[in-house]
Amino acid sequence: MSTGTKTPPRPATARSSAPGQAPPQRGRAGVPVRRPLEHRPVHSSLICAAAPALVISPEHGQLRGEGLDGFYDRGKRVLARCQLHLSGQEPVPLQGRMVSARQARFLAAARTPSDSGPDPQVTVERLRSAEGTERITVRSHAPRPLRIPVELRLGTDLATLGAIAVGAPGTELTPAVHGSGLRWTDHGAHVTVTARPGPDTAWASAGVLQWDWHLDPGESRCIVLGIELHEPEHESRTRLHSGSPRTEVGSRGTQADDPASWGSFRAESDDVRVHRLLRTSLDDLGALLLRDTESPSDLHLAAGMPWRCSLAPAESLRAARMLFPLGTGLAAGTMRTLARSQYAGRGQDNGKIPGALRRTGPGAVPSCTGIEATLLLPTLLAEARLWGLPERDVEGLLAPVERCLRWMLKASDGGVFLPDPAPDGPYRCEVQAQAHRAAVLGSELLDTCGRQGGSELRDWAGELRRNFAGEFWRDDPGGGRPLALLSRTGAWDSHLGSAAVELLDTGLSPKGQMAPGMLDQVRTAQLARLLGGPPLDSGWGLRSLGTGEDGHNPFGHRTGAVRIQETALAVAGLSAAGYEKEACSLLRGVVDAAEAFGYRLPEMYAAEQRTEGSAPLPHPAACRPSAVAAAGAVYLLATLAGVRPDVPAGMVVVRPVESAPLGALRLSGLRVAGEPFAVRISRLGMAMVEEAAEGLHLSS
């Protein structure tokens, strides 16, 4: 390889601003106008994930350092530009598509000086992987030998994803020749890009690698790039926030890291879309797996790409809970990881899981994701035990769960309702439902395991249920509705949104039963009617805020957009309560939306009303892949089978959705008691268990 002495080729077009950042606008007298920071859109990008690494590409495949495009690892952009030129020109893009959750494939045609007509004689394939590789294959279809100069223009800024997302990337760094490629260095961290075969010429000042190829008819040549980030040892681990568990970011996940049972899960249905939705969702989930550095055997899910490439306590727990039909290993790892972050000491937060505040809509007080995670932990352990979590794992998690429950009782400060954020926040409807579920399931868990405190929890849950009926429900001529929020001063907000589905999510109790809920039969029926009505059912799923409510916005992530996790909870809760018509309408809407999104569901999408010939609109800032969206798709399919185990009692209840909204369905590779479980649902909604662990008593 030669470093050359002649004038280097021109690099990418010079810009006065940093890569990916538009030039500042100028106001009067040339003074720069400050623009509000806002997330760059990613809805049209191809996002490959191998947590904690990812690569964001435009459909044409050329990485020009614009917007969010580039390879990322550990939250930093390790390669911003990767522009391919053949014979001095960019290839003409033909197609860009996802091959798997980890890889994207781009096809292009290249013009050459010898072309005599419109038909391309040279094609280019680029196979790009989130694991830090790209394979470029150039094929000649010409009838005679061709000389093709190949040029790669590379560059990076080593900027953080957060800065790039709001249009504030760093300045492009100057590279140096390094082995068979280039190297960039910034504050002790450095990125290397190696090429096989090595380039004939490298222009370090311009970040250019060059090859001079001669291709015979039908011949193909390849370049394989390897991109690596090297950081000082003390920076190789990151924390989500103070007190949070450390997340492994030094090695990328592989399929070998997936929970062993996921690969065997199969869905066969009259609806051919079911199989594609399941396989795509499982692929996304595998790409989001991370290990905890303190205990590498403990796996958990990153919340989603590209915005949340690490553990998010509440969402990671929700996703693990929805994946119980695939086994309890992921839930156990997630619970142990979060238990290590639990606040200790004598303060008011003792026993709480740390979590960030989250926006809940215009003018509303933020809610605390840590409270949601703290209330979810007892629910997950109680249900995991019923699905067959080994007793030694249950015993190991009892102490953290007891601390969560003690915090919950203490945070209510002797009162009935639980504030969010504690200790001085308002009382939210969904938080009371989550607390009630944690208390009911937690008391059953403590009693079963011979621990103290079950009686106090049952008494508190009973008082909460009685007071909720009087304080959190407002009657009206239409049958009434639950309040969304009740302040300490007595003010209340009655807007109708998807958060109310928490009132139907009572949780799994022993003997295959659902735990007692907050609402009586009449109010449950009214809530089912509201959830299934046009204000909330968009035809593509459940709106987060009903049409006609103040502040409704079909794109608002908490004020109107469809959120997959809440729609999945609604389908499960409505089905369990016997309201299959409303549940099936929401289910079909999500499956139809999944088809429109290529079966890779985003965490949310716009909730404009469905009409004939319409399609769901993407949200420009939605994570895709998303842990709760992919897990929600699996949960929706498992809900149709209605499998409710109680492994300690040696029984499984199977109560499928009788209307069989997706036709005949067979689910195999489910896990109950750690063993394979398979069930077939007929078009008439009749269930037949085809495989189960020995000793399990089956009932309906």
Please tell me about this protein's structure.
This protein is of the alpha+beta class. The protein contains twelve helices and 39 strands. Strands 7-8-9-10-17-14-13-12 form an eight-stranded antiparallel sheet, with no helix packed on it. A five-stranded antiparallel sheet has the order 3-6-11-16-15, with no helix packed on it. Helix 7 packs antiparallel against helix 8 (454-471). The chain is elongated. The termini are far apart. Residues 2-6, 10-37 and 234-258 have low confidence and may be disordered.
Using the CA coordinates, give the radius of gyration: 27 Å
The CATH architecture classification of the largest domain is: Alpha/alpha barrel
Determine the number of helices (DSSP H or I, runs of at least 4 residues).
Answer: 12
Proportion of residues in helical segments: 25-40%
- The shape, in one word, is elongated
Please indicate the percent range of residues in DSSP E strands (runs of 2 or more).
25-35%
CATH topology of the largest domain: Glycosyltransferase
Number of domains: 2
Distance between the termini: 72 Å
The largest sheet has its strands arranged as: 7-8-9-10-17-14-13-12
Question: What is the makeup of the main sheet?
Answer: 8 strands, antiparallel
Please give the CATH class of the largest domain.
Mainly Alpha
**Spans where pLDDT lies below 50 across 5 or more residues:** 2-6, 10-37, 234-258
Task: Decide which structural class fits the backbone.
Answer: alpha+beta
Oligomeric state? single chain
